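Posting for a labmate who doesn't have an account.
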Amino acid sequence: MKKSSPFAWLAAICLLFSWLPSCGTNDDDDDSVGDDDDTETNDDAADDDAADDDNADDDDADDDNDTHLPQLDLQSIVPVEAGASVGAEVTLTGDGFTEGLLVFVGNQPAESVNVHTSTQATAFFPPIALAERGLKDVRVEQGEQSAILTSAFEYYFDEDPIVFVHGFVLNDGEWIVMMDRFRDLGYPDEALWAVSFSSSLQSSRVNARDELAPYIDGVLSATGVEKVDIVAHSMGGLSTRLWIKFYGGADKVRDYVSLSGTHHGTATSCLVTWLGDGAAETCPVYADEDESVNNVQWDLNGDPDLPDVDETPFGVEDGGEIYWNALRTDADMIDVPANTCCLNQSSRGDCSDPINVEVHGIGHIEMAFDPQVFELTRDLVRAHNINRP
């Protein structure tokens, strides 16, 4: 009998026991394991794809935002100027305007901003100090964007010129301190005028008619305005009132301020009537018609015991255009008694009209350069102007 090969026996044994792992390969198990690996790989790949898609979407969104965010632009503003004392509402045109738009004139933010469309908005530019007037940049901001128009808006001086009128035995030099304070405030030289009468001893009527009237006409011509503010001291109160009432000043004054004006005379003048008509016209205090030299007190005040004459003609309270004010001091040793400086007196010494303001402890002469009096005068003459009637 032919002897069998060992390899044949081995093959037979493997055939019988093919279920043993060492003798064969379990395709099902391999496939299962392989399928799991493939699934995990596919899932990871899917997650990676989803993440990539999300990132791509975010990038696309950012790109879309960058693409569609309107570019902020400022093209024009109207009007291009306004008075420093009042400010102005301004219309802005441009692009990219949305709610939250910020507007600046110089370094000052607008008081209010209203966006009407993406290309139009309005803003209110506030008043500024007179000393800061001039050309200003206009800037808009929206988020991180900004746009600017250089020197696009101008604040101009919009107050009335002031004419200072000196008193008895004085001249325009008494106003140096007060005029310098107005300059510091922002008044230009062309808005500050001080008349100097050829004689401070002559009649207030002569001063009013022959000197003050042509002087103020010259101021109006030089400045191109229609009205001035008057600040008058002592006997200057009489010459200015005569000019307003009788010599053409009725429609040329907006604000009137007298400082210790000798409106109803003073007892001290009776000591020096020999100096001239200026002193004689203010003696006696509350002169009757037959006592009134050159009819100055009588024409301006009427009967001192009867409220028969309007002491503030053409005043706003009567439908006119003049704002009258009279400051007096309780320390006045020149206008005696001090209550003679009040206006609109219904009886002797009556200072009840609100246009009369009393200050304390300031001498008669000091009224022209005291800082407190300056502040009161400043506020009164600036209370009204052509833009702020």
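Reply:
Got it, the structure tokens are right above this. The chain is about 30% helix and 25% strand.
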